[in-house]
Amino acid sequence: MKDIHSFIQKLPKAELHLHIEGTFEPELMFVIAKRNNFQIPFSSVEEVKAAYQFNNLQEFLDIYYAGANVLLTEQDFFELTWAYLTKVASQNVKHVEIFFDPQTHTERGVEFHTVLIGIYKALEEGEKELGITFRLIMSYLRHISEESAFETLRQSLPFKDLIDGVGLDSSEVGNPPEKFQNVFKASAKEGYKLCAHGGEEGPAEYIWSALDILKIDRLDHGNRCLEDEKLVERLVQEQMPLTLCPLSNLELKVIQDLKTYPLKKMMEAGLLVTLNSDDPAYFGGYMNENFLETAKAIDLSKEEIVTLTKNGFEASWLTAEEKEKWKNEVDRVAKEA
Ligand code: HPA
Ligand code: ZN
Fold this sequence. Notes:
α5 (74-89) runs parallel beside α7 (112-130). α9 links the parallel β4 (165-169) and β5 (193-198). The chain has 17 helices and eight strands. It has helices at 2-10, 26-35, 45-50, 57-68, 74-89, 102-106, 112-130, 146-156, 181-189, 204-214, 229-238, 246-251, 263-269, 280-283, 287-298, 302-314, 320-336; strands at residues 13-15, 93-100, 133-141, 165-169, 193-198, 218-221, 241-244, 272-275. Helices cover 53% and strands 13% of the residues. Hypoxanthine is lined by residues 19, 22, 57, 64, 169-170, 197, 200, 248, 278-279.
C-alpha cells in the first residue's frame, strides 16, 4: 500500500470538482473569525471537527453555509484559496477547475467582486508560484430562485473574462435542473461552459434533464445514472465526463461503504469518470486521499489509477494540446514510478 501511496503521489493530477468554500479548514476558520470579530459557536478545532457528522447532503450544507459566513473580505477569499492551492500543490495536482458559490456571500451582503477577486488573485499567484493552471466556475444555488441566479449572472458580466463556466449545486432533491433552464441558456449565450450536480441524491431523471434541458458539458457526481441503462448508454456515447467524489459520497451516506463503490463497473461500462474531493475540509481528504482510499477499498490496479488520472485531464477544459501533454506526462511518470 505504501507503494500505491507513492504511485498516486507522483502522478500529476487534475481536480475538476472542488467547492472552494468546502476547503475551509477549521484552523483557518478560527484565524479569520478572530480577525473579523466573528463569533463561531465552537471553542476549538477539535470541537468543530467533531461536529462534522452527516447523514445526508442537507445536514452537510447547513454546516458548510454556516462556516462560509466567516468569510467577509477579499483577503479572506484569497487566503482560503491560497491554502487550498498550497495543499494540492504538495499532492502534485497540476490543474484545478474550482467552483465558488457567489450567492452564499452576496445574500449576506458581501459584494460579488470581493469574492471573485480574492479567489482569482490566489489562482493567478498559484499559477505563477506553484505552476497550477486553473479554470473558475461560478455555481448557482439550486435551493433558491432562478431569478436570484439571473441576478448572479448579471453581476458576473463585468468579470466575464475571469470566469469559465457555471455550475449548479446545493440541495438537489426537489430542485430539478429544469428550474434553471432559462438562466443556463442565458449563461451559455454569454459564453460560459455549463456543468451541474446531478444524480448525487436526486434520481436519474435529473441527469436526463441536465443533459437535455440544461445542455451541460460536464456532470458533477452522476452516481445514480447506474439505475438507468439507457442513460448510461447515452453518457458513454457522448463521453460525458462524470466528476465523482468518493469520500464525499461516503461522508454524505450516498454510499454506505467504499468497498461497494461502483467505480469499476462505471469504468467497464465505458463512462468517462474522474476522481475529485468536493469539500475536502469536511470530508476528510484531498485528491490523494480520495485516490488512495478508493484504491484500497476496491483494489484498483495501477493501470486503473493511471486511466482515472488521465481522465481528469481529458475531462478538463484545457486545450486539446494541453490535454495530450498531460496524458503523456501521466504515462511517462507511471512508467518510471
Ligand atoms: N453537493 C451539492 N452541493 C454542494 C456540495 C455537494 O456535494 N458541496 C458543496 N455544495
Ligand atoms: Zn460538489
